[in-house]
Amino acid sequence: MKFNLLLLYLGSYLCGGIPFGVVFAKMKGVDLLKVGSGNIGATNVKRALGTKFAYIVFVLDVAKAAVPAYAAKFVIDQPYFGLPAQVFWILAGLFAVFGHCVSPFLRFKGGKGVSTALGMVVGAAPPVAACGFGLFLVLLFATRYMSLASLIAVSSSIVTGWFLPGQARELLPLYILLSVFVALRHRPNITRLLEGTEPRFSINETKNPDLDSSNKSTREAQEELPTDIDLEPPNTEGNSSDATPG
Description:
The chain is an all-alpha fold and 246 residues long.
């Protein structure tokens, strides 16, 4: 059982490290790390590629933590080392969160971990996930601050994980650790929230202005190309100054 758990945790870390946002952006010829906030998550994908790809990346980022956390239930279904089995399920998802934030495929850089944190709780503690995601949606539509909604939703797991029936109380330290970790990943957002400069989330699909200006410049350059260029080779029989230097 110990070997199977270690193998699962390693696989969870590698699975969590897959940067789906970067992969889809690269397929579209976009370097996601140089667009918008430079983050690899769904919010920045929305800026670069639009709403459709943002939803796809969000689902995949949730799934890459939910699957290992759920799979852990088949590896361990009884207390182990004096701890409830649910602790080891959460740990499986937590390794995926760590992989997302410290990806081995991005030179140990990565995202902020909110979507994968949701997936972790979906796979290991669905009631906690339902409460957290519901609170996230309410706050997002009320404030339109993605970062604020994410931070409060993740932190709510501390309360719901303690009071909801059927949840292992031993998970409390892991929920606290997760909340602190996600908050640290959101330090720039917290600073902007305090300064009142944090951008608000928009449901409407947006396009990356840098990409738009780049495409516009390319189109304008193409339109300015002369169409009456004489493609005939220069006459070298006349003045030698007309000849192409060798």
